[in-house]
Write a structure and sequence with these properties.
Number of helices: 5
CATH architecture: Roll
Order of helices and strands: HEHEEHEHEEH
CATH topology: CBS-domain
CATH class: Alpha Beta
Distance between the termini: 14 Å
CATH superfamily: CBS-domain
Shape: elongated
Largest sheet: 3 strands, mixed
Structural class: alpha/beta
Number of strands: 6
Radius of gyration: 18 Å
Number of domains: 1
Strand content: 15-25%
Length: 147
């Protein structure tokens, strides 16, 4: 069973963050430059929220305003759900589906060690499925040691 640990071994543990006082424009620019959909919001290794493209889209839809000069803390999601390195992918998927979220910070020994996205989870689950299918096909046609 694949866990978050395997995803982070593949993609790395780099996490991009921004301070709560930074402007929404700064956050959007950073997300565009890094080609990511969310930033952790915090200071001094303390996570206080998460800011995503979805947070910004909701604000624009609700107010009709751009709000790029607002501080990130005004739009961020303050309740951040996270997972551990040994959390199975199926558990991550269930949590993301139930809570309608797309990003999960990864914690180990009370410190942030990475972040996984719904895209990371789906890619890993597809790779697991493809590997299983190849193994079963090899077993059916009689190749030795399919796994």
């Amino acid at each position: 069973m694949t866990t978050v640990r395997q995803i982070l071994l593949y993609k790395g543990q780099r996490v991009f963050s921004i301070e709560p006082e930074a402007s929404v424009f700064q956050a959007l620019r950073m997300m565009a430059e890094k080609d990511i959909g969310a930033l952790l919001v915090g200071r001094d290794d303390q996570v206080v929220g998460i800011f995503s493209e979805r947070d910004y889209a909701r604000m624009v839809a609700d107010t009709g305003l751009g709000g790029v000069d607002l501080p990130v803390r005004d739009l961020m999601t303050a309740s951040v759900l996270g997972v551990h390195m040994d959390t199975p992918l199926e558990e991550c998927m269930a949590l993301m589906t139930e809570k309608h979220i797309r990003h999960l910070p990864v914690m180990e020994d009370n410190r942030l060690v990475g972040m996984v996205s719904i895209g990371d989870i789906v890619r890993a689950m597809i790779a697991d499925r493809d590997s299983l299918i190849r193994g079963l096909e090899n077993y059916i046609v009689g190749k030795e040691n399919p796994w």
